Amino acid sequence: MVEDKRKLIMDIALEHFAAFGYEKTSTNQIIHQAGISKGILFHYFSSKKQLYATVLDHGLERVASFMKDALSELPTDLFECIVGMSRAKMNFYLHEPATYKLLVGAFSAPIPEETADLIAERRRLMAAHMSVSFENVDMSKVRAGVDPSQAFDLVTSVVNLLSTRFIERHRERPDRGLELLEPFLEQIGQYLEMIESGIYSPLNKEGNKR
User: Where, by residue number, does the polypeptide cross the bilayer (predicted)?
Assistant: First the structure.
C-alpha cells in the first residue's frame, strides 16, 4: 500500500513536471489529482525539490536500463553506431513520451536557481547514458592521415550540436518536438553521409589543395 501510494504520487508528478516544468508545477494540483492530503505528500517527499529529484532519477534509471541494452546491440562501425544510438534514443522517447518531455524540460530550459545543483549532477549522468565511447567503436576504416580520435570527436560533436539545436528550437512546443524526431533522425543520417563521403567532389578536392 505504501509503495502504491508513493508510485501514484510519482506518476502524477511526472505528468505535471513534464508538462509544466519545475517552477510552474503546483504541488496542490498533484495532491488534488492523487486524492491525498498535503501531509501525505510531504510524508513521502520532504519538499517539491525532493519530489522533482526523485522523478528525475527514476527517469534517468529508465534511460540507463534501456540504453544499456541498446548499446550492447549496436554495430561497431562509427557511422552505423552513431545512427543506431540515435535511433535507440528515439525509440525510447517515443515509448516514454512523458520522460522525454521531463528530461528535455529539465536539461534544456533555463534552470531555476533552486534546482541548479541537482540538474548539473544529473545532466552529467544523462550525457553518460546517451553517449558512445571511443573504445567501443571500430575506427579501422578511417583513411591514412586522419587521427581516429579527432574523427570520432568530429562526428559526435556534429550530432551533439544538431541535437542541441533541435531541442532549443522545439522545447517550447507542448510535445517538446517529439513528433519531429523521425525526420530529425533522417537529417542526422544526411549529415553523417556528408561527413563519411566528403563534401567536395574529387575533382574540386584536387583543385583546392592547401
Answer: none
Q: H or E stretch including 14?
A: helix 2-24
pLDDT digits (tens, 9 = 90+) for 118-129: 998 898 888 888
> What is the C-alpha to C-alpha distance for residues 20 and 26, in angstroms, rounded to an integer?
9
Query: How many residues would you count in the chain?
Result: 210
Q: Which of 123, 130, 129, 131 is nearest to 53 (CA)?
A: 123
State residue 139 phi and psi, 5-degree precision: -105, 20
Which residues contact residue 53 at a Cβ distance below 8 angstroms, ignoring those fewer than 6 apart?
Answer: 118
Global confidence as pTM: 0.83
pLDDT for residue 208 is more than 90? no
Q: Give the pLDDT band of residue 147 (cuts 50, 70, 90).
A: very high
| Coil, strand or helix at 147 | coil
